[in-house]
Structures are given as C-alpha cells and as structure tokens.
Design a protein that fits this description.
- It contains ten helices and 13 strands.
- The protein is α/β, with parallel strands linked by helices and 315 residues long.
- It has one domain: Spore Coat Polysaccharide Biosynthesis Protein SpsA, Chain A.
- The strands form four sheets. Strands 3-2-1-4-10 form a five-stranded mixed β-sheet. A three-stranded mixed β-sheet has the order 5-13-12. It has a three-stranded mixed β-sheet with strand order 6-7-11, covered by helices on one side.
- The longest helix has 17 residues.
- The mean pLDDT is 95.
Length: 315
C-alpha cells in the first residue's frame, strides 16, 4: 500500500521544571501522585522513534502532544517531519492543566494537519521488527483489534471506587457500550498502537458527549471516566469498521513487559521479548515511587543493544 500515515505520541516528563510542583497543587490522592504515568527515566520515546525509523517505511510526520513548555532535550526540532504540539493549542483551557491521559487522548483527532487515518502510539511502545500497515489496517477501511485472553472489568462494577483508575474506566466504558450496543463480556485489548480515523474518533466523542465532558473535567483519572483507546476499537467493531485478530496473532505480533523493581523478572521479560521477536511491544512502567537502578540499567542496555543508531529525530 503506497501511503504515508502520520504518527502521534502523547508524552510528558515529570522531571522537567515545574511539572511536579504543578501536579502537587492539584493532586488529592496518592493515586493522583503515581509517577508511573509521568516518569521518563528510560528515554523510551527516543528509542521508540529509533524503532519507527528502522522498521516503519510507511511513516509520515511525527506529532508529539505534550504540555507546555515541554519537549525532549534530545529532540531535533530542525527535522521538518517532527511537530511538537502543546496541550493549550488544542485542549479547552477550562480543563488545563490536565494530568488525565483520558482527557488528553480524547483530543487527538483535533490536532491540525494530521493524516487521516493516523497512528496513535504511547511513548512506551516500540517496534521490534518490520511492520506493514496491514497489521493495523485491513481492506483499507477496517482497523485491527488485538484481543487478550483476559476479560475486562464488567459494567456492573462501574460504581466500584476501589479499583485502579484504568479498570474503573474500562468498567464505565463497558457500561456505555452495553447501553448502546447490548450487554457483552468483552475481551481486554493488548497494549498496541491504534490506527485512528479522525471522523470515527470524533463521532465516538459526540455519541457519548456527556461522558467525555465529565472525563475532560477530571484533572486526574477518576470514577466515571472514559478510556477512549478502549471505547474506540469496540465502537468501530460494532459498526463493522474493525476486525479482531486471532489470539495467536495477538501474542505472536505484540508483547507486553511490565517493568517493576524485580531484576530477575525484568530480565526474563526482556529475554522473552528477544526470543519471541514480536513486531511491536510495550515496556510499561510499574516501578512505583523509586525505580530499582539495576532494573533501569538492564533495560537501558537492552534498548541500546536493540536500537544503537541515533535517529534523524535526535540532535
């Protein structure tokens, strides 16, 4: 397929001046202060861009959606194919500052100049082999969904405030899907890049306008928030605009490594990643408050060995 697809990242670095102080001003709970979602201790975005340059020949421009005035210190802003867009250029100022990824992601389709469709990648996702566009787009009109064997939190638990924020959002998203399309016990979706059609994304936001309004008002992930990256593929599935990959294909092409402070588990995960050789993977920060420096070193060594060459996106 001869086409170029733009790629959008969401990214922040809580070590940059003023970020943690701003977060503390608004944080209420310890969950709000969880550094797992705002830390950039491994420069994963840098290695993700190296992986894109090496393995994705259909890439278009790169868009980095972040809070003002942040940008990676290593980013080559002279590269005409890189665009940094700050939250205050797109997100309604009533909702800023926001530390809620659900709010931020809900605005992706409004970034000016994006190709349609575009690929959304979280900054902890990397490509580890040549990856055709057909891994995300079938028949030039249907996105590919990569299901996991696990089921998601059912809608009947939507009122449970004792779940992690992500599970709360899945439960509430299931409630919205049940009301609109009928009750179903849905599979979890693997942490993979998502191909987004702009009009379909905006239709999703319009369909559940009240739920998205409440989500955008929440500075942190909260009860009754929507998880757009889960709601979108399922809504497209029900509209016959998405198809599920088989479980074998999910586990052959994608891989998830949870990075915590156990060195043996981290090395085992990286070993399996190298042996399985999926096309894309996620190295998710589960370190907690204080990362184990030995684990950090092991991950950095893996990344440098796997992606040793600087990309054109770096100074």
């Amino acid at each position: 397929m001869n086409r170029h697809i733009d790629i959008v990242y969401t990214w922040v670095d809580d070590s940059q001046p003023g970020y943690r102080e701003d977060l503390e001003k608004h944080a209420v709970t310890e969950v709000d202060r969880n550094p797992n979602r705002t830390r950039d201790n491994l420069d994963l975005l840098k290695y993700s861009l190296r992986s894109i340059e090496h393995y994705i020949d259909w890439r278009g421009k790169i868009y980095l959606f972040t809070c003002r005035p942040q940008r990676p210190h290593w980013l080559n802003t002279g590269n005409q194919n890189v665009h940094v867009i700050h939250h205050d250029e797109v997100i309604d100022h009533r909702y800023l500052p926001t530390f809620n990824s659900f709010c931020i992601v809900s605005y992706l389709a409004q970034l000016e100049g994006l190709s349609d469709p575009f690929l959304y990648i979280e900054d902890d996702m990397l490509f580890t082999a040549n990856t055709p566009l057909a891994d995300f787009l079938a028949n030039d009109q249907q996105i590919i969904i990569y299901p996991r064997l696990e089921r998601t939190t059912p809608a009947k638990r939507q009122h449970n405030d004792h779940q992690p924020p992500w599970n709360k959002a899945l439960s509430y998203s299931n409630y919205l899907l049940d009301k609109h399309y009928g009750e179903q016990n849905r599979y979890s979706i693997n942490r993979v890049p998502i191909l987004i059609f702009r009009e379909a994304w905006e239709k999703m936001v319009d369909t559940w306008q009240d739920a998205f309004e409440y989500t955008r008002q929440s500075r942190f992930r909260s009860l009754y928030n929507v998880a757009p990256e889960y709601l979108y593929p399922y809504s497209l599935h029900y509209e016959q605009r998405a198809q599920f990959a088989g479980f074998h294909e999910t586990y052959r092409k994608s891989f998830y490594v949870g990075l915590d402070n156990n060195l043996l588990l981290a090395k085992s995960g990286l070993y399996l990643l190298e042996r399985i050789r999926p096309r894309f993977c996620c190295l998710n920060d589960n370190f907690g408050d204080v990362p184990n420096p030995c684990v950090e070193d092991a991950v950095r060594q893996y990344l440098e060995k796997k992606f040793p060459q600087k990309s054109s996106f770096e100074i």
